[in-house]
Design a protein that fits this description.
Oligomer: single chain
Number of strands: 2
Largest sheet: 2 strands, antiparallel
Strand order of the largest sheet: 1-2
Radius of gyration: 15 Å
Order of helices and strands: HHHHEEH
């Protein structure tokens, strides 16, 4: 059974074009095999997403609060990456809905 409250929090956090852009940037970094030590920091994310550092920090906090992004201290900076748990939860739910199995698991 799916944790619908957690999924709702994830989808709410993703309901922003800027946050979707940040998640896409982090997914590309992951797919390029970047290690935690070279994962993007706030300045790189801000530059790549074409937003201010303040805006990047705000959106990353929203994504962290929803459990989508984690940050780790690497030397003097914070590196950001996607959490596999959140991505797996979304993948599983979307797969189940597409396969029509999750619909019977949703109350109401």
């Amino acid at each position: 059974m799916h944790d619908l409250d957690r999924l709702a929090a994830i989808f709410a956090a993703l309901a922003s074009p800027t946050r979707l852009r940040i998640v896409t940037l982090l997914a590309r970094a992951r797919d390029q095999g970047r290690a935690a030590a070279s994962a993007p920091g706030v300045l790189e994310i801000a530059d790549d997403a074409e937003i201010s550092r303040f805006s990047a920090s705000f959106h990353l906090e929203q994504l962290r609060d929803a459990g989508i992004v984690r940050k780790v201290r690497v030397g003097t900076r914070w590196a950001h990456s996607l959490t596999e748990e959140a991505m797996d939860a979304v993948d599983e739910w979307l797969f189940d809905v597409a396969d029509d199995r999750a619909l019977s698991a949703i109350p109401g």
